[in-house]
Amino acid sequence: MSNKIIPYRSDLKELARALRKGQTEAEKLLWEAIRRKKLGVEFHRQIPLLDFIVDFYCHELGLAIEVDGSVHDTQFLEDAERSAKIEQYGVKILRFTNDQVFKDINSVIAAIKLEIEERS
């Protein structure tokens, strides 16, 4: 997928900036593992797509990564609807829980690497 432009609401840019400044501990941990092309592709933090903001996004591959806290335990339908809308643009969304990132970061990174290989 070649850097396809996905529309987004311009008012989300300011919120995305604020979210970058206030990353969760799980997001910080994962960011350290994927930033600066450590996995061979460039990821960006808190990127607006459509009416949403994804935690991490690789424009080159159309790959989004979400790190979900406990609030997502009760909003499965909302998350599924959100993912479906974004995926209509050819974006693949990988979801991990905070616990997965904290307890088994190596498996999280392995899953991301596998998706990068498949999309490259």
Automatic annotation (TrEMBL):
A GO biological process held by the record: methylation
Entry keyword set: Methyltransferase, Transferase
Keyword Transferase included in the entry's annotation: yes
Record's protein name: DNA methylase
GO molecular function annotations of the record: methyltransferase activity
Residue ranges constituting the DUF559 domain according to the UniProt record: 11-116
InterPro entries (UniProt xref): DUF559 (IPR007569), Endonuclease_DUF559_bact (IPR047216), Restrct_endonuc-II-like (IPR011335)
Domain of life assignment: Bacteria
